[in-house]
Amino acid sequence: MISPETLTERDSKELALPYGADGTVVPIQRFRDVQKLCTAMTDGKTKYVLYGVENQTDIHYAMAVKNHLYDALEYAGQVEEAARSHRNARKKRLREGNPAEASESKKPNSGEFLGGFWKEDKLIPSVTVTLYFGSEEWDGPLNLLDMMEEADSRVLSCLDNYHVKLIAPAMMADEEIMRFKTSLREVLLFIKYSKDKEKLQEILISNEARFREVERRAVDVIAAITNSGLKYSEKEVKVDMCQAIREMREESKKEGERIGEERGEKRGEKRGALKTAQENARNFYRLGVDVEKVAEGVGYDIDTVKQWLNL
Question: From the CB of residue 130, how many other CB atoms can be counted at a distance below 10 Å?
């Protein structure tokens, strides 16, 4: 379990300086949605893991390549940082003019000097998770090899695969979603059943205690993603979604009734206008006005007026 207190915000910008044989470097820059450093105690030792999150409202069919690039840039950045650290340490010793310390410090071998990354240097693991906010199942490739054109198995066996770590509510059991400890749990549950009103109602009833106090920013996400038209105050810290949904449905019901009344009034007006036209046609005809003139006067075609007059 990852707790908030174990996380430290990281700069979401990835900058790598690819290694060139001619010594030239071309910066590559990418921006993650979220990246945080997790510091945890394991077996009495401090362990570090980098977690990146890519938020998707739409399916990205090259997600495996995108996330793979982020992780590769992260590792390239760590190598560059290690090399920079070694260079700065050596410059500092020379600047301070301590020959004894300089002679005792490690001298990199040719391989370490070439890459700037020493044999004892270690990388911090980077884990990238894709969080999909859609209510449909993810139908895109979930690993790098699935994106490959069909090839000989002997060729594919030479390739290292990369797997997308995906969180998609439509593809998760309710029990899995309930394992989340933050309001992300309610967000994913609501999204999962947002297009099934009966099931959504069941979920709201069975989890009423949780949905009565949902963080407003989580409700913002639900309202934006599902386009549900939820009504709530932006000043609220916690939102009673059950009440918000009831108010939304009541407002929809009233709007439906209002539209029905307007349509009824229009139908009544049309019926009234038709009745008036029929009476005028009969009166004109009884006064000896020609049928063609009657039709022109009431604004209807001759065949319709003849039916009214039983002609």
Answer: 24
